[in-house]
């Protein structure tokens, strides 16, 4: 059969295939929300080459940072990955704090850890919810559980920050304000609720025989390929890349723990790692709550925060992988350069390595196991 090219447009949670010629499907207008193209070369219904085509959602975030002071930068920083808003703003805050030599209060460090893990579970539950549907698209008890869990996490995050999507809870020097009365009790109740809700989510995905059969061995990303492409987060750890900045980093106060790792690097292992990450976050939040100190949650700052001349690089573990900030300053109240290293930008390259050899009929299962946020790619 003569090789032909097809295009898969991905947007608004849908995936579309054309198997005879090049087609553009999905919302591809530059102002559309979350669109990217995947150009595939197919021979005999087997993908032989894959090329992610990004840039439809370019936002110019890094240039916008340069004309805003450090407090205003946080407003933009939580928007490129809208499922990791708290983690995004935290990375920028940590970069400025390190640049200025700030030592934030211990209570704010612990609360940041709790809010990061809540944000991580929120992002993973959004990713898992569509995977719990049946092959006909019908919601299952696992779908209802994933959506209920997401709403429960969002409610606790909203209590802490006042926002549901863009939290704006971080400030240079700590958090905007302390948690409201009764918040820690609500978090403990959330941990209990999520522990019970995870059972039907697992039953509809990694514990379901049909799901396991459908995903095993598909879209394999080797450890060598993951390392070469800089793939991190659950996707990298599913391929055996033993890197987790919660354990290996220096900016927060996590104790030693073993991250969720896989070796197969296939679609099933990627989903297993995401489910395991939620279970790990539940344990980390519980242990951090037990060690939550009292005291202030921020530092008193001057009217204008100015970083000294120089540069610094800070990285943290966002839900989808390593989020890094390279901050360069000329001693002014705005950054001279603020460069983002976003996990989705690196991770999406892996599609070119893991899709060749995949049957066209298996593309939905493989692509469904691979989480990216397009704003995080086209930052």
UniProtKB/TrEMBL annotation:
One of its GO terms (molecular function) is oxidoreductase activity, acting on NAD(P)H. InterPro entries: NADH_Q_OxRdtase_suD (IPR001135), NADH_UbQ_OxRdtase_49kDa_CS (IPR014029), NDH1_su_D/H (IPR022885), NiFe-Hase_large (IPR029014). The keyword Transport applies. Pfam families: Complex1_49kDa. Gene3D superfamilies: Cytochrome-c3 Hydrogenase, chain B. It comes from the Bacteria. Keywords: NAD, Quinone, Translocase, Transport. Residues 144-301, 304-379 form the NADH-quinone oxidoreductase subunit D domain. Belongs to the complex I 49 kDa subunit family. This is NADH-quinone oxidoreductase subunit D. It comes from Kutzneria buriramensis.
């Amino acid at each position: 059969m003569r090789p032909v090219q097809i295009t898969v447009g991905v947007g608004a949670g849908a995936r579309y295939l054309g198997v005879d010629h090049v087609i553009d499907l999905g919302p591809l207008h530059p102002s559309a929300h979350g669109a990217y193209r995947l150009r595939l070369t197919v021979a005999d219904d087997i993908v032989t080459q894959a090329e992610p085509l990004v840039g439809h959602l370019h936002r110019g975030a890094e240039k916008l940072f340069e004309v805003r002071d450090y407090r205003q930068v946080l407003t933009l920083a939580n928007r490129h990955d809208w499922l990791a808003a708290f983690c995004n703003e935290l990375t920028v805050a940590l970069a400025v704090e390190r640049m200025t030599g700030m030592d934030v209060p211990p209570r704010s460090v612990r609360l940041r850890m709790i809010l990061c893990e809540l944000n991580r579970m929120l992002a993973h539950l959004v990713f898992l919810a569509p995977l719990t549907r049946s092959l006909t698209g019908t919601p299952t008890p696992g779908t209802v559980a994933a959506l209920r869990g997401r709403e429960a996490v969002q409610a606790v995050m909203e209590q802490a920050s006042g926002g549901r999507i863009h939290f704006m809870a971080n400030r240079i020097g700590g958090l905007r304000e302390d948690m409201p009365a009764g918040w820690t009790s609500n978090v403990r109740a959330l941990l209990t609720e999520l522990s019970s809700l995870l059972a039907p989510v697992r039953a509809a995905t990694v514990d379901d025989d049909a799901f396991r059969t459908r995903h095993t061995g598909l879209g394999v990303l080797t450890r060598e390929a993951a390392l070469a492409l800089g793939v991190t987060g659950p996707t990298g750890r599913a391929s055996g890349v033993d890197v987790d900045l919660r354990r290996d980093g220096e900016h927060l106060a996590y104790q030693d723990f073993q991250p969720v790792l896989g070796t197969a690097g296939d679609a099933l292992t990627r989903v297993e790692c995401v489910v395991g990450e939620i279970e790990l976050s539940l344990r980390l939040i519980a242990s951090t709550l037990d060690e939550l100190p009292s005291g202030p949650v921020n530092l008193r700052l001057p009217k204008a925060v100015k970083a000294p001349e120089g540069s610094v690089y800070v990285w943290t573990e966002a839900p989808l992988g390593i989020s890094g900030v390279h901050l360069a300053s000329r001693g002014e109240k705005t950054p001279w350069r603020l460069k983002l290293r976003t996990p989705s930008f690196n991770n999406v390259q892996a599609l070119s390595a893991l899709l060749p050899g995949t049957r066209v009929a298996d593309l939905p299962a493989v692509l469904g196991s691979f989480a990216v946020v397009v704003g995080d790619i086209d930052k």
